[in-house]
Amino acid sequence: MRRTIYKWLLLVSSIFFGTAGCQNSINILKSKYNVSAHYENNQTENSIQKGIRKYLISHHVNGSIAIVKKNEIIFQEGVGFANRKRQIANQPSTAHPIASITKLMVATSIMQLQDQGKLTIQDSVSTFIPDFPNGKNIKLIHLLNHTSGIQAPRWDLGKKKPAAIVKRLNTTSIRFPAGTQWDYNDINYLVLGFIVEKVSGEPLHKYIQKNIFNKASMGNSGFISDMPPVYSTGYLKLGNQLIPAKRLNTNLLFGCGDIYSTVLDLCLFDEALMSGKLISKQSLKEMLTPGPKSNYGLGLYVLDSMVYSRGAVGGWESLHVYFKNKTSIAILLNVRDKGIDIHQVAKDVYKMMNEKHL
Prior knowledge:
Layout: H1 2-16, H2 23-32, E1 34-35, H3 37-40, H4 47-58, E2 63-69, E3 72-79, E4 81-83, E5 88-89, E6 96-97, H5 102-115, H6 140-144, H7 162-168, H8 186-200, H9 204-213, E7 222-223, E8 235-238, E9 241-244, E10 259-261, H10 263-274, H11 281-287, E11 301-302, E12 306-313, E13 316-323, E14 327-333, E15 335-336, H12 342-355
């Protein structure tokens, strides 16, 4: 009887407070960041971790979360199930599709190519795609900040490769003159991914792996066409039911949503981007400059106290926020639940952390 109860307690602990799993991911951060001594020692665990954990459970959060401030890991845990059927718990090292956070990495790729003198964001799209609709008037910056005015073709794109989708754009209409309105549209970044390939001379995935993942030490990130062994299943919450999400279409997500990552890797990305390891100071300044029609810069939203990018696809939702005080919060959920406001979760845990920071 005691043995049965003990096993049950271990299972519950694993499900709700996942901290084990792929240790390589955590070790990479430990070699780069200082893990809070209070966080390492469970016996002296401080009220920040206890409070955040209690908050996540009471708000029915299901996924992974990490908080890093000034090279110190404040919090890193998984909550709930990565796979309910197989009873696999979420861990901080569980891989999740990051959806539109992919755009920030494609934008970073464009800025790297600008730093190398291979293009500028003021170049016309027609420089790289001669028959692109309104290509002489649309600049790369218009694609980057979603003011291009282009729209995706209105037909089934399910089996089309990215190059075929770009080619099809020459028959689509322009919704408005470039630069005059803001229209968040995935097609902008699918086109940018195609341009990265043309300019760099290599596949987009290979380019990002070599120039972003490797440089930022993101050892547990990759592309959903080749998901790793430890990754989450996405679910849609409908009423009281959790419905497994359908398989993602990698062609439609090219350049705009086809990357998977972990919360720890996203914190490494933030540190590499903001510290100048990936792009120049001038290019970073351009990325963090909001467009004339929105608070969207180049691949991310820019507010007074923070910058962030968010994504949602299938049964997954993602958010990572970087604050001016060098705090990075990454949240990857594998249950899409209308009752959970991922932005509010980030605000609440940030407030809790700063009220009682060590």
